Amino acid sequence: MPAATVSILTTQPDAAEVWAEAWAAVERRDKSAREFVYAVTTTGVFCRSGCPSRRPARDNVRFFADAAAARAAGFRPCLRCRPEEVSGEAVLARRMADFLDGQRDRAVTLAELGRLTGRSPFTAQKVFRRVLGLTPAQYQRQARARALREELSRGDSVTDAVYAAGFGASSRVYESAGDALGMRPGQFRWGGEGVVIRYWTAPTLLGEMLVARTERGICAVALGAEREGLKHELRGRFEAAELREDPSLDAEIEAMAQACRESPAALLDLPLDLRATAFQMRVWESLRRIPAGETRSYREVAAALGNPKAVRAVARACASNPAALLVPCHRVVGSDGQLTGYRWGVERKRKILDMEAKERRG
Prior knowledge:
metal-binding, globular, single chain, 12% strand, DNA damage, sequence-specific DNA binding, Arc Repressor Mutant, subunit A
């Protein structure tokens, strides 16, 4: 009998390459790898790659295409990661996807998906992303784009195709093409003149959190030690706007705090309404592409924007970010990896990064 008892059941031609990718997923406990299960010959148990149990020795692992194949080989399911329950998640994800396919002409909220599945909004999002690899909002955008291509391929006029695909207006096609944040620079007049802004503050694990909204989306998220200071800062930023306290935002603050701990990617789906220069907007969009649990230096962000010398300008854009967590400037650190300034406090920055790292490790 050979020394290694690793085997791979796969229809792909290059088994060695598949084996290497599968084992790498097990080593990093990758929860997104859903196309196989692994079994441990010494325990008789099979798991998903993201299982939090102790990592087995490499020579004691067998790979199977699915849970049914592992069971047929005589292995039993792990009680920690419950690999056979993934099919239930797949059913939920398919239900949500079918619902989204029928609602192309409007934005579906996470709350609606929560009601549809009987889960919390952020749990629904987490299941959807885990099974399908993208958020519900990204799925809707891709569905509209796919429908638009199909309509145009049939020879319809651009205008007819736009409306048939669910965009609602031709301008929305161009907005969605290059506007990842769902907002436009210069949207506000200086000081928010003529704009009604609803806001509320509530205590969280990160201290007091203030969330402010216009009719289009969130325009400010601030963190601090006491709420009066946060309110004063909001009034200073939007001195000409009509500010209204809105206790109904308390639930949104609670959901955001929960997402920060359990599913940071879910925060990217919340609609934003920010005012900024074109350069600030580019920086903020770049920050939102940094995966939760990872960091970048100011120089790396500048290089990603095509201007490696713009380090100070990037730092200023991070410092002027009005939406904590939603525009994750906390993921930018010094070139030596040290935590640098954060407008809401370095210790708070450390705590957020620690929570994201913990969530990523599972």
